[in-house]
Amino acid sequence: MQELTVRLEMVFEQVKKARKDAVSGRVIDVGSDHGYLAVRCLEEGLAGSAVCTEIHKGPAQRSQDALVEAGFGDISGVYITDGLKGVPLIAGDTVVIAGMGGLNIVDIITRALKDNGYHVFENVTFVLQPQKSNDIVRKYLSKAGFVFVDEAVCYDRDIFYNCMRVVFKGISTTITDEEACYGPVLLKKYNSGDKAVAEYFDHLNEVFEVRQRSNPTVKAALEERKKNAGQ
Ligand SMILES: C[S@@+](CC[C@H](N)C(=O)[O-])C[C@H]1O[C@@H](n2cnc3c(N)ncnc32)[C@H](O)[C@@H]1O
Predict the structure, then answer these.
(1) pLDDT, tens digit, for every residue of 180-212?
(2) Domains of the chain, residue spans
(3) How far apart are the CA of 27 and the centre of ligand 1, in A?
(4) Can you tell me which atom of ligand 1 is nearest the CA of 100?
(5) What is the predicted pLDDT for the residue at 223?
(6) Paired strand residues for 154
């Protein structure tokens, strides 16, 4: 079985949940690098086929090698491309974009939405693991018409990570600065006493105390959080 880091295991768990009731479609890993996630998804039978996209030739080759070596050469495809360019989505697909900056993620989804249209997007699940700019990602997603289904956190080699699962409903909503910076689903989990989320929030609060000096969104989020947490 393909081993994954704690961070990628968290991403994998969200893919697993996304694929729970899926009867068709593929797992598409955008920015696959080593290809481990796609290999693991196929090993566990989460999809009939997998697609990896990579902007660079070296990682694309790595992904291809990993898939062939694991015996999945005939049910996978690796494309050297920017995001999802030239890879039309199909209803039932699960798209993973992990380990990338939030702005890159927003750019990839914006272009894919334009290329594929609402009717396809409504039947695709996205698993997103931004390395930074979570607030920008969440504000974009809600404005663009996505709904937050789940969000997980983990601590891997001294770093906290989060991973969200979202679906497209086509109805634009607005979230608060607090929701953008902490995550609407994570706020609910925190309020239900989730210990991992509480540790993650402690970490965010420390980071935000410093960042608020230069970032008005973070400043407003921190103030809202303190008020809502009764501090
Ligand atoms: C830090 S790695 C993360 C790899 C893997 N997704 C993970 O979470 O472990 C980011 C990968 O995304 C690729 N990448 C960055 N921007 C991309 C884009 N716009 N389209 C496709 N691949 C991209 C990079 O070449 C790199 O291999």
Answers:
(1) 999 999 999 999 999 999 999 999 999 999 999
(2) 6-172, 176-231
(3) 15
(4) 10
(5) 97
(6) 161
Compute the distance from residue 53 Cα to the ligand 1 centre, in Å.
Answer: 8
C-beta neighbour count of 33 within 10 angstroms: 18
Q: Classify the C-alpha dihedral 198-202-205-207 as positive or negative.
A: negative
Give the residues surrounding ligand 1 with Cβ less than 6 Å away: 8, 30-33, 53-56, 59, 82-83, 98-100, 104, 108
Q: Return the CATH architecture of domain 6-172.
A: 3-Layer(aba) Sandwich (3.40)
E strands, the chain, are: 27-30, 50-54, 76-80, 94-100, 125-130, 146-156, 159-168
- What pLDDT is attached to residue 107? 98
Q: How far is residue 100's CA from residue 27's CA, in Å, rounded to a whole number?
A: 18
Closest ligand 1 atom, residue 131 Cα: 1
Q: What is the DSSP string of 104-134?
A: HHHHHHHHHHHHH-HHHHTT-EEEEEESS-H
Ligand 1, atom 4: closest residue by C-alpha: 33
> How many whole angstroms separate alpha carbon 146 and alpha carbon 224?
23
What percentage of residues in the chain have a pLDDT greater than 90? 97
Q: How far is the CA of 141 from the centre of ligand 1 (A)?
A: 20
Q: Ligand 1 centroid to 14 CA: how many Å?
A: 18
Measured in whole angstroms, how far is the alpha carbon of residue 224 from the centre of its chain? 25
